[in-house]
Amino acid sequence: GSGHPGKRQSLLDLGLVPPELFPLFTATYVGKEGTQLIYDIKPKEDRYYDRVWIDPVTHITTKRKHFNQDGKLIMWFKYKNPVEPRPKMYVPSIVEVYNPSNKLAAITDYRNVKVNLPVDDTIFDF
Description:
By secondary structure, the chain is mostly beta strands. 0% of the residues lie in helices and 48% in strands. It has no helices and seven strands. The chain has strands at 25-33, 36-43, 49-54, 61-67, 73-86, 89-98, 104-109. The two termini are 27 Å apart.
């Protein structure tokens, strides 16, 4: 529900950290792994959190670990093959989901990614 922003699907699931999450979440810098910047992102109204690895060049999440309210790893994601649908705007085109035992559970492959194109109003005519 609306009281649990982290339970709603968001652009975070696509490897992006959208500005609309900033007022609802607290981000804490954890450190670096190679060139990747690592942050813990935690909803202000909940106890679960996500640890994200962010590429400083593309500004996309390259890896995300999702922990429950007890700090137990629930699943983790790998965001791969960034595409550039607009200049200097990157989006991962492949998302892999793993269980806590590192077993691949799902792969999503995005193709023909387009961002903020005008939408024909007639698609809302029912």
